[in-house]
Amino acid sequence: MTMKVGVLIFSRKRPGFDQEWSREIRERAIAAMKGCGFQCIGADRIVNDDQTVNTAMDEIEAAQCNALVVIQPSIADGQFAFTVSQRWSDPVILWGTPERPGDGKVSSCALVGQHLWASIYRQAQRPFEFVYGAPEEIADSLKRAVALCATVQRLRRAKLGVIGTHVPGFIDLAADPFLIRQTFGLQMHSLSLPQFIDRVREIAEDRVAEDLKIARALKLPITGGKDAAPDEMLEMNSRFYLAMKDLMAEMSLQGLALQCWPELPNMLGHWPYLAVSRLTAEGTPVSIEGDVDGALSGLVTSLLGIGIGFLTDWLEHDDETAFFWHPGMAPLDMCNAVGCEQGPSLGEHFNGARPSVVDGELQTGSPVTISRLWRCDNRYHLAALEGDAIPPRRHVSGNSLLVQVDGGDVYARFERLLHAGLPHHVTLHYGRNADVLQRFARLLKLDWHG
Questions:
Q1: Residues 23, 42: Cα–Cα separation, whole Å
Q2: Is residue 134 within 8 Å of residue 97, measured between CB atoms?
Q3: Which of 184, 117, 119 is closest to 156 using CA atoms?
Q4: 4-155 domain in CATH 3.40.50.2300?
Q5: Which end of the chain is more exposed for a tag (fewer CB within 10 A), N or C?
């Protein structure tokens, strides 16, 4: 889907500065935004007073734009910062453009103008993203800024479901719907676990048969053997998969947390882990053990373009590395290829001997970000560490990954996070994503732990 971006390009009513340069910058900026794949609303005009600003904002709001970019090819009146903030409640992107090179005089004071606006926005306690550079040089920065601002906007319209509650004893995963609403704007919808179990049982047989074709096509072998998993091992997970998809569609949910034990394996004979693995690989944020903040984190990172990631336990560490593990629901796209020596397979849970658990180590040889979003002291916190995925020192069932943490000092950093209330789940993403996560934390005034 093409991202709709509102654009306000300010001009000057009174003479001054190099207006030919301003016109050139304006044209190059519009071309650069379209080159990023954005549908630019309002970029076909310039604004220079309350009437033109409000007319442009009417069009931008009617188009339901996902983000708003403000450009001043020549410095504009700082008072308009308040005019824009009255009309646009989400973060804005302030793009500072350069001076004309080498002509011996000041051509625009464009950066001065955006510095002025940034100071006003900060003192008014309004969030913003800042981009600076020539139009041909800032594509990555601009895309990141738009993704951040659009994520904040979309969260305010989002709805997150939780089936049941956190699993017994995992009190650190308890959610606060009012704090979620206050911090992110989205709503939390509590759903019945017994009704979900009934829904799983009542999925039509013809739909199960159709989904079984897809599950069989994965060609997942049984742990310890080469034979593909039989239908009786896959059928219940097709029911889980379809039930979760149906529920999310019916309730207009963008993410889901599922209380997966002890009821599901005890009453239905299977863990839902293969279904969770499939859904997350498809881009649907689903967490296990009733971890609402884990599902929320998956929704945030999905909207940011990072992916949903693997929600996991922090199993052990030394001062240089951390070893992460969970019994079997990593997204299939984070696992090794099916059929290779360390490829995913289906087995039984290590603690209870019930299927269907995805066994298999995660891919190594890539940068990794370890992150967590959580609530403590009536505030939300966000932490991220970066490192590299390296070959494991030992092999365990379920899904696991060993990470060489950048900068080491893991003992002390882990302890600091514990004193900040870090829950026992963290999320792994491939790539170095700490910078964009820190920017997201700043936009929503989350406590940041780097």
A1: 16
A2: yes
A3: 184
A4: no
A5: N
Binning pLDDT at 50, 70 and 90, where does residue 341 land?
confident
Amino acid (one-letter) located at 312: T
The CATH class of 159-449 is: alpha beta
| Least confident interval from 13-17, 149-153, 322-326, 418-422 | 13-17
Which tokens sit at 266?
């005890």
- For the chain, what is the HEC assignment? CCCEEEEEEECCCCCCCCHHHHHHHHHHHHHHHHHCCCEEECCCCCECCHHHHHHHHHHHHHCCCCEEEEECCCCCCCCHHHHHHHHCCCCEEEEECCCCCCCCCCCCCHHHHHHHHHHHHHHCCCCEEEEECCHHHCHHHHHHHHHHHHHHHHHCCCEEEEECCCCCCCHHHCCCHHHHHHHHCCEEEEECHHHHHHHHHCCCHHHHHHHHHHHHHCCCEECCCCCECCHHHHHHHHHHHHHHHHHHHHCCCCEEEECCCCHHHHHHCCCCHHHHHHHHHCCCCEECCCCHHHHHHHHHHHHHCCCCCEEEEEEEECCCEEEEEECCCCCHHHECCCCCCCCCEEECCCCCCCCCEEECCECCCCEEEEEEEEEECCEEEEEEEEEEEECCCCCCCCEEEEEEECCCCHHHHHHHHHHCCCCCEEEEEECCCHHHHHHHHHHCCCEEEC
**257 near 161, Cβ under 8 Å?**
yes
pTM of the model: 0.96
Rounded Cα distance, 37 and 15, in Å:
34
Higher pLDDT, 12 or 123: 123
Q: Please state, in angstroms and rounded to a whole number, the distance separating the CA atoms of residues 435 and 227.
A: 44
* Nearest of 383, 349, 207 to residue 272 by alpha carbon: 349
